[in-house]
Amino acid sequence: MAENESPESASGATEATKVEGRVNRRRVREGTVVENRMDKTAVVAVVERVRHPKYAKTVQRTRRLYVHDERNEASAGDRVKVAETRPFSKLKRWRLVEIVERAR
Questions:
Q1: Which bin fits 7, alpha (ψ -120 to 50), beta or left (φ > 0)?
Q2: Which residues, including other chains, have CB under 8 Å from residue 75's CB and lie 6 or more apart?
Q3: Fewest CB within 10 angstroms: 8, 63, 72, 91, which?
């Protein structure tokens, strides 16, 4: 079948799959809001599971990210999705993308 295809149709498929412009390399993380007392800022705890290089045991590492929350819509306990962005302040390098699940 591949022998019967013309080169134009094969190259057309590759052209359609190419992404034009810049590729978005910004990281996206999911975590839990632990603090929202600041104006337009939330602190999100992101838990990452890493395998220990020597002992091969799975270890949890928690990182606290300062997140820009423009409308102050995130509350403590919410599961949120955050994306890396330009620096908003000294500590804020992430922005709120969506609230995945509200706290009960």
A1: alpha
A2: 33, 36, 102, 103
A3: 8
* Residue among 47, 38, 46 at smallest CA distance from 75: 38
The burial class, CB within 10 Å (0-12 / 13-18 / 19+), for 44 is: buried
Residue-wise pLDDT for 9-56, tens only, equals 555 555 555 557 778 788 999 999 999 999 999 999 999 999 999 999
pLDDT tens, 60-101?
A: 999 999 999 999 999 999 999 999 999 999 999 999 999 999
Q: Which residue has the tokens 């809001």?
A: 33
Element (H, E) at 12: helix 7-17
Taking the alpha carbons of 90, 96, 100, 104 in that order, is the dihedral positive or negative?
Answer: positive
